[in-house]
Amino acid sequence: MRILITGAAGFLGSHLCDRFLAEGHEVVGMDNLLTGKIENIAHLAGHENFTFIKYNVTSYIYIDGPLDAVLHFASPASPIDYLTYPIQTLKVGSLGTHNALGVALAKQARFLLASTSEIYGDPLVHPQTEDYAGNVDTIGPRGVYDEAKRFAEALTMAYHRAHGVETRIVRIFNTYGPRMRLDDGRVVPNFVGQALRGEPLTVYGDGSQTRSFCYAHDLIEGIYRLLLSDFNEPVNIGNPNEISILEFAQLINTLTDNPGGIVFQEASRIKGDPQTRQPDITRARTLLGWEPTIDLTTGLHHTIRYFQERV
Ligand code: UDP
């Protein structure tokens, strides 16, 4: 296959490039490097099956030659990033998705949208199944990301229904691993960075809010299988192993022998912070035969090693 990956220099985009190249496919990577890092794909420079185009996908996309698949992963994705770039986030989720779907239609390529558990907002159903419509505050600080991705899902289904494009939608839950940006503000790089510097970990609120963390390689396997499947409706991919943020902080302090402890910071700085999040992955298990294989401690060991060289 010849595949276009938008957001190719990002955390997940770069792992996808590696995976598709490893399977012998040809990859065209596109990224405007707003939140992506060229270092994430530096090792691919000169690879005979890889091309990189620095480009903002909110403008019309032109690609020479055939394409078999378009994977749309471009977007700021951490709360800090999408609060810093609210308009760019809305544009890449709306105009960017439109352009990426347009390329897929023109090339008769399969299209896969990177959607998110954020489309469920602060969920009132637990764990979250794909048929749950969500509880999103349209004008809250997270609205720029949540609504952009909700629009992107609607547009993707519209292209499927109106134009017959073969589309896939993955709803990605919290994922961690090497190539996250140390300063992206998310809980994994924040906590691991603080721990490796011997500082206290900053728990927002009382730490009772929960998340379920999936190691990047597990997630990539799920996405790979979804692309090759024939299922058009959204599929949750994530690890159902749920943990409170306070317990998560304690685990990271233990794994890093951090003497710094924990400090609690005001919850108000993260207005709209979902209280719980856990994927129901029955659909992924049934349709794709997929489930996560890497436990949290093992995944965190790999991640800590990666950050140790960068702190
Ligand atoms: N969080 C925290 N301390 C930090 C960073 C994040 O307590 O230094 C919390 C945050 O309030 C949220 C959870 O960790 O409840 C996950 O936050 P993240 O930014 O990783 O992503 P989210 O899942 O909220 O999109």
Task: Explain what the structure shows.
The protein is an alpha/beta fold. The chain folds into 2 domains: 2-176 and 215-239 and 279-288, Rossmann fold (3-Layer(aba) Sandwich); 187-210 and 242-278 and 296-308, Alpha-Beta Complex (UDP-galactose 4-epimerase, domain 1), CATH 3.90.25. Helix content is 37%, strand content 17%. It is built from 9 helices and 13 strands. The strands form 4 sheets. Strands 3-2-1-4-5-6-11 form a 7-stranded parallel β-sheet, with helices on both faces. The longest helix is centred in the N-terminal third of the chain and has 22 residues, at 86-107. The N and C termini lie far apart (38 Å). The relative contact order is 0.14. The model has no long low-confidence stretch (mean pLDDT 97). It binds uridine-5'-diphosphate (UDP).
For the largest beta sheet, what order do the strands appear in spatially? 3-2-1-4-5-6-11
CATH superfamily of the largest domain: NAD(P)-binding Rossmann-like Domain
DSSP helix fraction: 25-40%
CATH architecture name of the largest domain? 3-Layer(aba) Sandwich
The average pLDDT value, as a whole number, equals 97
Got a strand count? 13
Could you give the distance between the termini?
A: 38 Å
Shape: globular
- DSSP strand content: 15-25%
Give the H and E element order.
EHEEEHHEHEEHEEEHEEHEHH
Given as residue ranges, the uncertain stretches (5+ residues, pLDDT < 50) are: none
- The number of domains is 2
Bound molecules: uridine-5'-diphosphate
How many helix segments?
A: 9
CATH class of the largest domain: Alpha Beta
